[in-house]
C-alpha cells in the first residue's frame, strides 16, 4: 500500500462533434462590419502591457460613437497603465468574438488603438449609466479605446473540400 494520496481521475473531454465537421472559410470583414459586430456583444478581452509582458483581461464594454469603453477601478493594472500618459494614450488591443462551440462558425474582431482614462465628469457619469460591471466591485473609472486598426474575420461553411497533405480531401 502506498502512502501517496489517491489521484483524481483525468478530466475527459467529449470531442465528438455534434455538427458534421466540414471545411470552413475565413472571410475578412471591413472595419465598419467588424465594429458593428463588436457592438453586438458585451464581453471582450483587453490586451495591455504589464511589467513589459502582454496581459489579457476579460471585460464588458459598450461601443460609443466608434470608441470602445470599459469600466475599471482604482488599483486595477489597466487604470494605472492608462493614467501614465498625457498624449494620445497607451497602446492596447481589444478582442471580441462570437464563435459557436459546436459548429465553429461565427466571427472574431480585433481592435488596436490608444486607451486613456475618461476624465470628463459628464462622460464618466454617462458611462456609469450605460455600462454595468459584471463583478461586484466599485468601478469609478472608465477607459476609452480609440480604434486605430480594426480587423475581423467571419468563419463560414464552404462548399470546397479541404485539401489535406497528400491530396486527400476526406
From TrEMBL:
UniProt entry keywords in alphabetical sequence: Oxidoreductase
EC number: 1.-.-.-
Signal peptide: none
Top enzyme category: oxidoreductase
InterPro entries in UniProt: Pyridox_Oxase-rel, Split_barrel_FMN-bd
Keyword RNA-binding among UniProt keywords: no
Gene Ontology molecular function terms on file: oxidoreductase activity
Coiled-coil segments: none
Name assigned to this protein: Pyridoxamine 5'-phosphate oxidase family protein
Protein source organism: Streptomyces bluensis
Higher taxonomy: Bacteria, Bacillati, Actinomycetota, Actinomycetes, Kitasatosporales
Amino acid at each position: 500500500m502506498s502512502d501517496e494520496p489517491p489521484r483524481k481521475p483525468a478530466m475527459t473531454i467529449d470531442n465528438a462533434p455534434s455538427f458534421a465537421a466540414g471545411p470552413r472559410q475565413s472571410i475578412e470583414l471591413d472595419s465598419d462590419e467588424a465594429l458593428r459586430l463588436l457592438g453586438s456583444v458585451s464581453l471582450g478581452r483587453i490586451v495591455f502591457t504589464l511589467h513589459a509582458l502582454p496581459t489579457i483581461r476579460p471585460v464588458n464594454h459598450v461601443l460609443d460613437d466608434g470608441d470602445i469603453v470599459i469600466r475599471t477601478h482604482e488599483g486595477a493594472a489597466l487604470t494605472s497603465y492608462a493614467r501614465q500618459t498625457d498624449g494620445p494614450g497607451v497602446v492596447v488591443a481589444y478582442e471580441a468574438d462570437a464563435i459557436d462551440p459546436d459548429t465553429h462558425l461565427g466571427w472574431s474582431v480585433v481592435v488596436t488603438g490608444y486607451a486613456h482614462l475618461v476624465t470628463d465628469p459628464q462622460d464618466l457619469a454617462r458611462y456609469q449609466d450605460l455600462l454595468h460591471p459584471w463583478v461586484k466591485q466599485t468601478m469609478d473609472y472608465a477607459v476609452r479605446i480609440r480604434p486605430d486598426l480594426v480587423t475581423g474575420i467571419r468563419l463560414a461553411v464552404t462548399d470546397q473540400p479541404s485539401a489535406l497533405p497528400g491530396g486527400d480531401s476526406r
